Amino acid sequence: MGELFDLTGKVAVITGSSRGIGKAIAERMAEHGAKVTISSRKAGPCDEVAAEINAKHPGAAIAVPANISSKEDLQRLVDETRKAFGKIDILVCNAASNPYYGSQLEITDEAFSKILANNIIANNWLIQMVAPEMKERKDGAIIVISSIGGLRGTEVIGAYAISKAADMQLARNLAQELSPSNIRVNCIAPGLVKTDFAKALWDTPAGEQRASSGTPLRRLGEPDDIAGAAVFLASKAGGWMTGQTVVIDGGSTS
């Protein structure tokens, strides 16, 4: 394995990693030598993904279910990872919520608050939990999965897009604060990726055709299209990159 992308000896926590983009990131990081913690709300799917990874890379994965809306759950996620692997070198904040599709003018306070809390505040909680040990070691990589929704207006997923724009600013702020300790904080902003999370936007032949026709590469993204960037940002290859948002969208915003 090339040294630039080698994650041997690193430990990564990846939220929302029982499926989709998070699962692909966990699989690829394990493939590149990292120990990984699989986490999402339900224990069963987490156990399944951890078992799949351990079948290929024995001892590389554990499963710790956690709800991102619970600070106590997230602290347990961090604590269990440290108990199993001794440390946390890489944090991938991938889990997010989007319970509402429709007009920004009609969203309820409850839905708006949930989106902002789960997609911004929960990320900050996790970063607060892992940053002290990274600062002590003077080494760490934090990756927040944002979205191109945070770069342009939308009539359909407004609150979600607001939260993803905020994640980009969260990364910029934290990069300024943590860079002196050699901790890098970056975002990845995917376009429309074929995941269960985004099914409402692509899960019909007409919907997929409509969505992909506006993309210069003429296809929607796959989870692995995002996983490679996460490996880059977590590894030596991304060692001089911080405070940035990497757009991966098949050219949609070009």
Q: Please tell me the overall pLDDT.
A: 94
The CATH superfamily appears as NAD(P)-binding Rossmann-like Domain
Give Rg in angstroms: 17 Å
State which percent range the strand residues make up: 5-15%
Layout: helices, strands, pairs:
Elements: E1 11-15, H1 20-31, E2 35-39, H2 43-56, E3 61-63, H3 71-85, E4 90-93, H4 109-137, E5 140-145, H5 158-178, E6 183-190, H6 199-202, H7 205-213, H8 223-234, E7 245-248
Parallel strand pairs: 1-2, 1-4, 2-3, 4-5, 5-6, 6-7
Helix pairs in contact: 1-8, 3-4, 4-5
Describe this structure in words.
- With 254 residues, the protein is α/β, with parallel strands linked by helices.
- The protein has one domain (3-248): NAD(P)-binding Rossmann-like Domain (Rossmann fold), CATH 3.40.50.
- Helices cover 46% and strands 14% of the residues.
- The protein contains eight helices and seven strands.
- A seven-stranded parallel β-sheet has the order 3-2-1-4-5-6-7, with helices on both faces.
- Strand 1, helix 1 and strand 2 form a beta-alpha-beta unit.
What is the compact description of this entry?
Helix content is about 45%, strand content about 15%.
